[in-house]
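All the exercises in this workshop are built on plain-text protein records. An example says more than a description, so a record of this kind follows:
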Amino acid sequence: MAKNKLNFHKLLGGQPFNADRQLKYELSTSFWADSNDFLWRAGLLLKKRPHDTNAYFAKIYVDLIMSAECALKSLIISLSLPTETPENAYLTARKIGHHLDRLYAEVEQRAKRRVKLLSPADKNILLKANTLGVNYRYDITTFFFLTQEDYIDRAFQRGLVSSVINFDFINELYTMLHKLKDIADKSYHKYYGKDNSLSGTNLQRLQDRQAAFFKAMRNKL
């Protein structure tokens, strides 16, 4: 009877319940949701601009690189091998921190022959965005680093800060990040989106697995 039930489950396109697999799904989709929220907020800020200042664009920039970071962390977890525990996949993503170049390199390694990533042109946009960081959300930080640029470089928006903190690049990054978010979305659906029933005993197994993850990771969440 159990064997027939398992075969029927496979015919429906699902997989036998696996608590680690379900937990990875939750971790990956959680990072994806953060990526989507940051991107959505950046879009609202772009459309409803009270003024076009470097300080204002800097705050949108921070939301955008946070969106990129979360999408890449979602991909790291969704592209983890079945033998990699949720804890190890999460720690791999977490330890890289805000470094978009290193996060993307990790994703590239995991995605080989599995998921199509960004085009070379879009990857260059991502890596250009990586030249600054989340500390540039403050007006005083942006102001003083801009003053260190050569006047001509700043005028033509080709300095370290001026090439990134400007409307044209912000808008270009915003457009590209929709593609990265969609790649992350397709990845977790491809590897974890099939039926993994949570009814009855399985729900308790998942809750126990979540509790074990929280106990091990609570100081790293």
Q: What stands out?
A: Residues 104 and 112 are 12 Å apart (CA to CA).
